[in-house]
Design goal:
The complex is a heterodimer of chains A (464) and B (586). Chain A is of the alpha/beta class and 464 residues long. Chain A has helices at residues 139-142, 163-173, 194-206, 226-244, 256-269, 283-291, 320-328, 337-341, 358-361, 371-395, 402-419, 429-440, 453-459, and strands at residues 10-11, 14-18, 21-25, 35-39, 45-54, 57-62, 75-78, 84-87, 95-97, 113-116, 133-135, 147-148, 155-157, 175-176, 183-192, 213-219, 248-254, 303-311, 331-334, 354-355. Chain A is built from 13 helices and 20 strands. Chain A is elongated and about 85 Å long. With 586 residues, chain B is of the alpha+beta class. The chains are: A alpha/beta (464), B alpha+beta (586).
Chain lengths: 464, 586
């Protein structure tokens, strides 16, 4: 800093060091939430943030914990700034850690601007409702749970389920139909294993997409507190590319469960009153401050689409992390252990999955005129088949009528041919709808109650 | 002289300022050099505890805190309808024009535009004596709302002069003489957000609030001036339900409070209201709508006040003699805002960390609904109806917000996750929902038909019996049931799929007027009666289920409004002819 400081921005008056908190005698001019540097007696420096400022005392949370802090020699230097990300078009193709420092061996970023990682809320009146279909090439998504630009659509998974494979497949395949536009991928690894993080990076490398991507990597062994800044850095980069560089940005945040656990850990250290299962009461607001950064703005070219991934502890969809996420996001893709056991990939549970933005993104001009009808009918057929499957385990399949048996085999076929597909298979939306129509052809025509007459004439193949 | 203090402590949205003696609780203050809007929520000697309606990042100890001498007011007058506000009534449209697409801090806007000229037509003349609440003139605010200019509460006098003309909200439209003093009257008045507006007398709600959603209007009716809640887990379509109500309800004015909810959804609401038309008048819906948008990423404290801002506006239009509907999505986010502030103040928490006053705050909010005779002349009645959504964590209705709400409201629309998974929309559960207004709106329904109560009761019984039979079916299979039960299952399914299911996206089905709903449901019940006779005379249900009439009943939903009369008439005539027996192919 060139300017002359009117007062000292440094103090040694630390009165308490406890877990990750320092309680320091206040000096004038400290800003709420500003960043500090803690210089240890050993010469090491750590970053921290002011979480409470008062006339007499200031509370600082130290990233990386207070081990080796002593009350004699350690000093605290106030930076006068909140956490910011340096941005320029050169950030594409780069990989950073959870504090925004490059870790790919490349040069530091020559910044055009420094952006506050917390972002600024978009004016609801300026937002544009998302409506552009993104073709992921995955039938269970494109056919039944459509993703649109500007949406936030999480993947609810469980330990050991192939959420990373699915996310990587979406990253490889996602495209807007018939348009070649500027798009970018931002990837945030939050507290995941080194292997998971490098799986994504090597995936991007193989497809040559790395030059259009930015990674922010906080692995399981990185500081816990940086799990809170990692997704925010990623979203700040995404917003910069979307709103300043007119790009369509797809953001993957994995794993939100690690994020929430970090939030809980740090809240407990501050001695806050916990809410459900020990998570802080403001977790909804905190998650919303990230997820809500998805969207489109009227009059701007770019968009931010967010796919958060979370692993539901004990596959419990009512767990606070999944629950609060579901309340904020516009639907969810839920993975099913039952389907996984049947060796169906991707094991997407289409009953629990939902895309709230679907209606806007399908139909003539977006996908195909019959899409909504096919969607409704597919659900009805699969639901009926599933119900009968359940009943037949009790009363035996002999007790079912012939019509019921057709439904039963239609549901099986739906799982085997529609939901199931290859990890590298990219289906166009026409192919996806075509598979559904083939399944419909097994049924009696009059059972296709949810499809308009003229579509039946046009699309229903001869029974095979 | 405004009181000026200094910031003493900052913790999240809560700021404590020193040197504030002389200020009052709930006074609005400007916090810091950026002049963020805050509200004093407690005073302790020299110190004031302030909740700040904007992000407090970057505030420093010692920055000034300046009192305004006023408590938080809602500005009331022409220019509100069609506008979009944040929780503290800043116009988001003005902010978009002035500061751009993102909400930076410290921005100020007037709630009502100061330049617009409104055409004022007096309804009183010089020499008349006027009291508080009296209507003295009108302004055509939109094609659907005639704004009645009322004498503010606490003011009276003899009209010295008043004239027709074009005025801005701040210009004097009339002057009154009162005890030798001259009182200028403008078109804008202010009212404290947290204080209910006064009325003469309150009545029990008894007129149906037509929502156009069949299951509500017919099975669990809501009355004008009533209070209702919609609890439901995520994915059950709470927001779509509320949007449908805000769209089609046959009230004079609707207020949509998006409290801590999704930005994209809010954008969708805002955009759709610019295109959709009111079925009764064919005018654009935004001509009868006020929006309050405080999305989940906007400051949490402004969420807390947004509900009060909304209900104050509702009461103001009620006082003009209008029927107003306020939709609040979601009261759980509102309660969470209270919890967050309570925790920052280190209050002793109640259940699940919510403040102990959660129940009383919720009750006093819902209690501001009602059907009343308004203060002032001419004699008039108005109503404010409140519907709040509740987002119970894990769809667990035993949590404090749902439970506190259930004790206050008189109609419950309980949303069912299982229905959502079956793609049955709306997901309002017919087994768990209820309405205390069913008896009182019976009189209203007699205008449409005399057998409303009978059809309604029959329907509810069929649905209840179906639920009981479902249990048995799961054990023994549907084939093992006696014929009469099979028939009941068939009819229950028709009621569910052909009456209760309603598509928010189908151009005809999205709004179903009560007459139409009645025709549809009584046709199904009629079918049941005829089919029962057939079954008694030996016909099998498997044969009845092949009847040509069944697909015709399913198609009722899609028949345009102007053709439904003939369609149902013909359908019923064919039923009477015994066509139930006639089986149809494709």
């Amino acid at each position: 800093m060139e300017s002359i400081q009117l007062f000292t921005r440094q103090t040694k008056a630390i009165s308490i060091a406890h877990r990750s908190l320092l309680i320091i005698e206040s000096i004038p001019g400290i800003r709420y939430n500003e960043i500090v540097e803690v210089q240890l007696g050993t010469g090491e420096t750590r970053t921290g943030q002011v979480i409470e400022v008062g006339k007499e005392t200031t509370v600082v949370q130290v990233f990386g914990g207070v081990s080796e802090v002593d009350l004699q020699d350690s000093r605290v230097q106030y930076k006068g700034e909140t956490l910011k990300l340096p941005v320029s078009p050169d950030i594409l193709g780069r990989i950073f850690d959870g504090s925004g420092t490059p870790i790919d061996g490349g040069p530091p970023i020559v910044a055009e601007d420094y952006l506050d990682i917390n972002g600024v809320p978009a004016n609801p009146a300026s937002r544009m409702p998302p409506a552009e279909f993104i073709e992921t090439g995955i039938s269970a998504i494109d056919g039944l749970n459509v993703l649109v630009r500007g949406q936030k659509l999480p993947i609810f998974s469980g330990s050991g389920l192939p959420h990373n494979k699915i996310a990587a497949q979406i990253l490889r395949q996602a495209a807007l139909r018939g348009k070649a536009e500027d798009f970018a991928i931002v990837f945030a690894a939050i507290g995941v294993s080194y292997d998971d993080a490098s799986y994504f990076i090597s995936n991007l490398e193989e497809t040559g997409a790395l030059s259009r991507a930015i990674g922010f990597i906080n692995t399981a062994s990185s500081p816990v507190i940086e799990r809170l800044s990692t997704p925010r850095l990623a979203l700040t980069a995404a917003e910069y590319l979307a709103w300043e560089q007119d790009m369509h940005v797809l953001v993957i945040l994995t794993d939100i469960t690690n994020y929430c656990d970090a939030l809980r850990e740090l809240a407990a250290m501050r001695g806050e009153i916990p809410s459900r299962r020990g998570y802080p009461g403001y977790m909804y607001t905190d998650l919303a401050s990230m997820y809500e950064r998805a969207g489109r703005i009227t009059g701007r070219e770019g968009s931010v689409t967010i796919i958060p991934i979370l692993t539901m502890p004990d596959d419990d969809i009512t767990h606070p992390i999944a629950d609060l996420t579901g309340y904020i996001t516009e639907g969810q893709i839920v993975l099913s252990r039952g389907l996984e056991r049947k060796r169906i990939y991707p094991p997407i549970d289409v009953f629990l999955s939902l895309s709230r933005m679907m209606k806007e993104g399908i139909g003539e001009g977006n996908t195909r005129e019959d899409h909504n009808n096919v969607f409704m009918q597919s659900y009805a057929v699969y639901a009926e088949g599933n119900y009968l499957r359940e009943i037949s385990t009790v009363i035996g399949s002999e007790a079912l009528s012939d019509r019921d048996k057709i439904y039963l085999s239609a549901a099986d076929r739906f799982e085997r041919t529609f939901i199931s597909q290859g990890e590298h298979e990219r289906r166009s939306v026409e192919e996806t709808l075509g598979i559904a129509w083939k399944i419909f052809s097994m049924l009696h025509k009059e059972d296709l109650k949810l499809i308009q007459e003229d579509y039946i004439k046009k699309y229903l193949p001869e029974p095979s | 002289m405004a009181i000026t203090g200094r910031i003493w402590r900052v913790s999240g949205p809560v700021v404590i300022a020193d040197g504030m003696r002389g200020s009052q609780v709930y006074e609005v203050v400007d916090v810091g050099e950026e002049r963020l809007t805050g509200e004093i929520i407690a005073l302790e000697r020299e110190k004031a505890v302030i909740q700040v309606y904007e992000d407090t990042v970057g505030l420093r100890v010692g920055e000034p805190v300046v009192g305004t001498g006023e408590i938080l007011m809602v500005e009331l007058g022409p220019g509100m309808v069609g506008n979009i506000y944040d929780g503290v009534q800043r116009s988001l449209i003005t902010m978009m024009e002035d500061i751009g697409d993102f909400l930076t801090r410290g921005a100020r806007t007037h709630a009502l535009d100061r330049e617009t000229k409104w055409h004022f037509t007096p309804t009183v003349k010089a020499g008349d004596t006027v009291q508080e609440g009296d209507i003295i003139g009108t302004v055509p605010e939109t094609g659907l709302i005639e704004h009645k200019i009322m004498i503010p509460i606490g003011i009276q006098g003899t009209v010295r002069n008043i004239s027709e003309g074009d005025f801005t909200v701040e210009e004097t439209i009339a002057t009154l003489d009162h005890e030798g003093k001259e009182i200028p009257v403008t078109m804008v008045q202010r009212w404290p957000a947290r204080k209910p507006r006064i009325y003469k007398k309150r009545f029990f709600p008894e007129d149906l609030l037509v929502t156009g959603t069949r299951i509500i209007d017919y099975l669990f009716p809501l009355a004008l001036g009533g209070k209702a809640a919609i609890p439901g887990g995520f994915g059950t379509g709470k927001t779509v339900n509320l949007q449908q109500m805000a769209r089609w309800s046959q009230t004079h004015l609707n207020i949509y409070v998006g409290c801590g909810e999704r930005g994209n959804e809010m954008a969708d609401v805002l955009h759709s209201f610019k295109k959709l038309r009111d079925p009764a008048t064919d005018r654009l819906l935004q001509e009868k709508e006020i929006f309050i948008a405080n999305t989940s990423n906007m400051p949490v404290v402004a969420r807390e006040i947004s509900i009060y801002t909304g209900i104050t506006m509702a009461e103001y239009f009620r006082d003009m003699g209008y029927d107003v509907l306020l939709v609040a999505d979601s009261t759980s986010r509102w309660a969470e805002a209270m919890r967050e502030i309570g925790a920052r103040l280190e209050e002793t928490p109640g259940e699940e960390g919510f403040p102990t006053y959660l129940g009383s705050r919720l009750a006093s909010f819902y209690e501001r609904s009602g059907r009343v005779t308004c203060v002032g002349s001419p004699e008039r009645m108005g109503s404010a109806t409140v519907i709040g959504s509740v987002s119970p964590p894990g769809a667990d209705f035993s949590e404090p917000v749902t439970q506190s709400t259930l004790r206050i409201i008189d109609a419950l629309y309980s949303l069912d996750v299982a229905l959502a998974n079956r793609r049955h929309f709306p997901t309002i559960s017919w087994l768990q929902s209820y309405s205390q207004y069913a008896d009182s709106v019976d009189k209203w329904w007699t205008k449409i038909s005399t057998d409303y109560t009978e059809v309604r009761n029959k329907t509810l019984i069929i649905l209840q019996n179906e639920a009981d039979l479902e249990e048995i079916v799961r054990l023994v299979g549907p084939e093992a049931l006696p014929e009469e039960d099979k028939l009941l299952l068939l009819v229950a399914r028709m009621i569910r799929e052909d009456f209760l299911m309603q598509s928010a996206y189908h151009p005809v089905d999205t709004y179903s007027p009560p007459e139409r709903s009645h025709k549809m449901l009584s046709a199904i019940i009629r079918f049941y009666d005829v089919a029962k006779e057939m079954a008694e005379s030996g016909m099998l249900v498997s044969e009845i289920s092949q009847s040509k009439l069944i697909p015709r009943i399913s198609r009722m939903k899609d028949i345009p409004h102007d053709q439904i009369d003939d369609y149902v008439k013909k359908l019923r005539a064919d039923m009477d002819k015994g066509l139930v027996a006639e089986q149809g192919g494709a």
